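ARCHIVE RECORD
Type: protein–small molecule complex
Small molecule: zinc ion
Source of inputs: curated submission
Record status: active
Notes field left blank by submitter.
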Amino acid sequence: MPKCDCSEAEVTEEHVHARITRLEQATKFRPVHIRVLLLDAAPPAAPGDDFYHPAISRSARSLPSRMYFDELAVASGIARDSLATMDEAAVLAEFQRRGFFLVHVVECPLDDAAALREAVNRLAPTLLRRLETSYKPKIVVPIGMATAELIPFLQMSGWGDRLILAKDGPFDDPFLGDPQNQAEFGTFLGDTLARSIPAAR
Ligand SMILES: [Zn+2]
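STRUCTURE (tokenized, with ligand):
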């Protein structure tokens, strides 16, 4: 049985295949020069919810996934109003053109919070190597509370001046998947990010 760095345990062939598929999908939309690297902890469990898997019909995504997709698009400067008329592949191409790229510290879904926390900490040095040798972004933006522990690590590793933070932590929308509360509390992640990320020069 093969191994995967998301877990200490042996994994199935399907697990490895799914990881490769996710990487291939993301690579299609990888900018040559990454300006803004959005950093999340782990991909969603359902393959149809993967950010870089363009949904033919929007209903193919779960509601939180659809909201996540839209908020990241808005973060890159794509107008919220135009999302309704663009297909997802066009949104992803525009996201790429603007120099935005989304990556995960752990490249496999991990539903268990403790396992995710352990994997994020264990893979922090691997992430640092990916940043330094592959992505080389101008700006790094942590998203979701599960990336919080990476922040001091990145600051100590010389990435502090390229980190964009919400107060002292990652950007997070506690109401993703809950449009009513999201609207009521004004927690739209995309708008907050778009305001916080410096414009391209
Ligand atoms: Zn894995």
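CURATOR ANNOTATION: Residues 37 and 99 are 8 Å apart (CA to CA).
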